[in-house]
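Quick start: what a row looks like.
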Amino acid sequence: MNLVGSKEVARAAIEMSLTRTREEEKALKEQLHREGISAAAVDYGGEFITSVNKIVERAVVAAKREGVISETHPEEGAVAGATREAISQIMNKAIGLNVGGKIGIARCGDHISVALFFGIGMIHLNEVAIGLGHRVV
């Protein structure tokens, strides 16, 4: 396995969050696996304020389901913490509005990154934002 650092893991999480289709997501996941990076992605949408906990929960569940993390408190906590960090970066734009997009998660060794790529707004009047969080397990 080719170990990579936090910068490459962050890039992988962002790329996963930018995939447009399940097929593109699967192909990128396979490519990253060949590079030694585990990855997962999950779609999300809803009203921002009431959805913060659900966003964190979806990130943790997706990471466990795809084998990016195991079911241990430190690993679940790392994904939850990185997700909360990413949320805090988009909060000012998203408060009181709807968000929709994708959560990308990537890991290599002890580096875990979570990226949120969301459209923020009402109807078709959207702002776009990316939040990124990183933790070490």
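That is the whole record. The first helix runs from residue 6 to 18. The first strand starts at residue 38 and ends at 47.
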